[in-house]
Specification:
Blueprint: H1 3-27, H2 29-32, E1 45-48, E2 54-56, E3 65-70, H3 75-91, E4 97-102, H4 109-118, E5 124-127, H5 132-136, E6 144-148, E7 154-159, H6 167-177
Parallel strand pairs: 3-4, 4-5
Antiparallel strand pairs: 1-2, 1-5, 3-6, 6-7
């Protein structure tokens, strides 16, 4: 066997090992690079309702961001919406960004917008019918929510509905925004102009 043939065999072995390593890394990516508290928030891209524009993590750089993955058909998502709106009503004017990304794939964007309006939602609602955000953030169900600090690190990951107007969540958001810890309040309180107890009937 010539020296050239030996090097060809070595090169072939190295190539096979490289392909195997890449394949294993892709297959086990969730285990090797878990998305959780303390990790950097992955980039994502979702569509602005009724527009060709999209949003990504770059649009919220340096901001405190709550990223909520949800769907209009999801019962627990509906239960959670009022507390998200209460939290946003309190801290949106103080710098909080709250983005709810709908993963609906059989519902029109007009229907998603109507749904959000029916529930009195004032925070930003985006649409990702490809479900890419689920894969990127390794979501395991709906709703799933990520609290992201201004430096881009995930500070809280919550699977399922939560009371986002609770004292603990309000204190976390206040801390990330550099504000004083809020005083305890009744989580059932809501702005008088918005009825969050039940959906508003659609306009005729």
């Amino acid at each position: 066997m010539t020296s050239r043939q030996q090097w060809s065999i070595v090169g072939g072995i190295v190539g096979v090992l490289a392909i195997a390593l890449v394949t294993a890394s892709y297959t086990m990516r969730d285990q090797l690079f878990p998305v959780g508290v303390g990790s950097e928030a992955p980039d994502f891209r979702a569509k602005v309702l009724g527009s060709t524009q999209t949003r990504s993590m770059a649009d919220y750089k340096g901001k405190v961001l709550i990223l909520n993955v949800w769907a209009t058909w999801c019962g627990p998502c509906k239960d959670e919406l009022p507390s998200l709106e209460r939290l946003y009503s309190e801290y949106g004017p103080k710098g909080l960004k709250l983005v709810a990304v709908s993963i609906d794939d059989y519902v029109s964007e007009d229907s998603i917008r109507t749904f959000a309006n029916t529930y009195g939602i004032t925070f930003e609602v985006l649409h990702d019918s490809t479900h890419a955000i689920e894969r990127i953030y390794q979501a395991t169900g709906y709703p799933e929510t990520f609290v992201i600090g201004p430096e881009g690190t995930i500070r809280k990951k919550w699977i399922g509905p939560d009371d986002w107007s609770s004292q603990g969540n309000r204190a976390l958001i206040a801390q990330l925004l550099g504000l004083e810890t809020p005083r305890p309040t009744n989580s059932g309180d809501a702005p008088a102009s918005i009825d969050l107890a039940k959906p508003k009937p659609p306009a005729p």
